[in-house]
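Below is just one:
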Amino acid sequence: MGALDSAFIQEAEHRPNLKMVEGEGIPLIDLSDSPARTREELASEIGNACKKWGFFQVINHGVPLGLRRRVEELVKEFFDQPLEEKTKVKRDEVHPMGYHDSEHTKNVRDWKEVFDFFLQDPTLIPALSHPEDKSLRKLTNQWPQNPPQFRETCEEYAREVEKLAFKLLELISLSLGLPADRFNGYFKEQSSFLRFNHYPPCPQPELALGVGRHKDGGALTVLSQDSVGGLQIQRRSDGEWISIKPTPDAYVINLGNAMQVWTNDLYWSAEHRVVVNTEKERFSVPFFFFPGHRVSVKPLDEITNEENPPKYKEFNWGVFFATRNRSDYKKQEVENIQIDHFKVSE
């Protein structure tokens, strides 16, 4: 990516503190079956993490370690290729899956390159970002010819991480006192996708961010990160930025906007960002667990009442997703759509 272009430079108040200490207290939760703990007790542990942090890490999660290692090797192999090879599957507004190296967050360019692919191929989303327009777009994945076995390995890994996502979704539902499958119907035509992130060394990491501050849109995100580190979250209690130390073979889990709305702000979608450094490249693989395009997102009836009225107006997930997706490609004149735009006036 060369010298630091002005497009990457963050406003002064959003520049990273590179000497930040690692956060204490971010839960590390063991998902293995244990005779000493019921499923409800495990769900309660996850629920507490969702309230306090909106982030936690999980171990003994069931995703095969050998498969994860193969994916890590393929990710590096893909990004090590010449730019002309990677851009054979370059994404654009017509084909939003594939390779991209100029993504923007909060209208500032991110110091990274990515490769995206849908879990379900094809995936349907609204053709236009207007609620009254019912036409749909059929979106398909783009797959590179190299590295060998890239598509097959990616698809196998996606199915395994999806299983973990559903397991977590059911535990979150139980933590709310709801049936385990309460949310499952929202994902019958899911718009979930996986992303491979590559953050090269940056000449001036004090000015730029690998990913600018943001909240994820969907239900939850399942993140595999390497040992380099760089992920920071904003603590719910005081707004301070803290770093998440990589835990070997763990997944980092964070809640998205949809879960915050469904729980009427009981559970938290934390703002987060990625800092970069001058010496080491970093790789990560998030799985964004997104509902189907027809799903209406609103606070759950089982949670709201006269004492806890809905804090959000209902919105269509497909329109929300389509609008956010189109804002990633270039600097916009207006702020990208956020769940705060659906807040009910108090």
Q: What stands out?
A: DSSP finds six helices and 18 strands in the chain. Residues 129 and 323 are 5 Å apart (CA to CA). The chain has a mean pLDDT of 92.
